Amino acid sequence: MSDNKQKADAPKPVPSKKxxxxxxxxxxxxxxxxxxxxxxxxDYTFLDFHFVLQAAFNxxxxxxxxxxxxxxxxxxxxxxxxxxxxxxxxxDIFGSDRSExxxxxxxxLSDIFPRTRxxxxxxxxxxxxxxxxxxxxxxxxxxxxxxxCLQGSGDAPPEDVGGEGGFINFLEIINDQTNPDHQETVEWxxxxxxxxxxxxxxxxxxxxxxxxxxxx
Length: 216
Known about the structure:
By secondary structure, the chain is α+β, with helices and mostly antiparallel strands.
């Protein structure tokens, strides 16, 4: 697979400046590579951050999610219990104890970072995507109005592709026009809105993340 790394220019200045966090968000793959370096305002909630990550990795909010991290020596699970996601059955199978969960809409990034430096964002308990989040920098006066992707590399898996193994198989088929399943797989990918990584496209989605939140 090609390592299609792309890097953006610095965010264009805007009149209002605010505190922000620069994160590395990397999918926990065994064989593939997929990561995004993003700047996010510090006053976003973890629910906002969820939608930002959805936009950054071109996901559609079909499934449940959570953030797991350590804060003040305690392990926290930050999630949203009323998402309307289609795979709530997985939460029951894994025995989710909702009474111990912190609502993602009620906690700010600044409540956790920069005291905490790392977290894991889990999405789709069937395909089991895990994104390792690492705080790279706290920016006191960030000139941005919406989140920005500074650079990244690798295609993100489409919804319901079947984990990393399914994604590898998907990529092999769409890259091989002689494969008898090529056209059908390409069409399925289009239905799932799969896109090759393009930095400008990611930033377009990030600029529209509030619309994505409304649609989901």
